[in-house]
Design goal:
By secondary structure, the chain is of the alpha/beta class. It is built from 11 helices and 8 strands. The chain has one domain: Aldolase class I (TIM Barrel), CATH 3.20.20. Strands 1-2-3-4-5-6-7-8 form an 8-stranded parallel barrel, surrounded by 6 helices. The structure holds cytidine-5'-monophosphate (C5P). The site of cytidine-5'-monophosphate has 14 residues, from strand 8 and helix 10.
Amino acid sequence: MGRDVIIACDFDCKEKVFSFLDQFTGKKPFVKIGMELFYAEGPEIVRELKKRGHKIFLDLKLHDIPNTVKKSMAVLSRLDVDMCNLHAAGTVRMMEAAIEGLTREDGTRPLLIAVTQLTSTDEESMKRDLWIDQPIDKVVMHYAENAKKAGLDGVVCSPLEAEKVHAVCGKSFLTVTPGVRFADGDIGDQKRVMTPAEAKKIGSDYIVVGRPITAAADPVAAYERCLNEFVD
Ligand code: C5P
């Protein structure tokens, strides 16, 4: 899979997802399904979107004991998602177990991406609540290296971290970056943002775009604009 735009389908029920995607006649965007939609609709939403021809990033951010993560990843692998994720904080052993669970008998598996530190966690809350005293950028890079060591394919990170992740973990280690906004768009609650063109320049492999597409007056045109800036 090459560079692509992933639409964050942050809707609370399948009807809203389908009426949103029905606008994309003839196109099958790569979509992200998060916890809200998955918990509301269950695995059937994944099967239905796969049947309709979409690639799927299932964003459930697993974090549990290695055995539980391994068995849960085996279930997600059978659902035939294209990309899924977990928290690197679950340790290298947990990430290795996830790869084991995800790998099918024929050796294939969905891409597996690690969340390093959530962007909602800042250095102060890391120190105060988690008792992690290292600077946050060092923690992010250490977790990215752990993910690589465990055999994962990449990390979710801010577009501003993508270059450094590639420098530390290699160019082929994937960076999946949310926090994307058009130059003339509303940034909303995102703090550190980049345009699709800038994300391309710094080497992001996938951008995850939600509201700039889902809340646009013309979502298909907004999606095309992302593709033009980021992929072409
Ligand atoms: O609407 P917006 O483009 O801000 O959506 C971004 C998507 O990426 C949302 O689904 C959000 O939960 C997700 N995300 C994020 N920042 C992270 C991790 C995930 O915005 N650090």
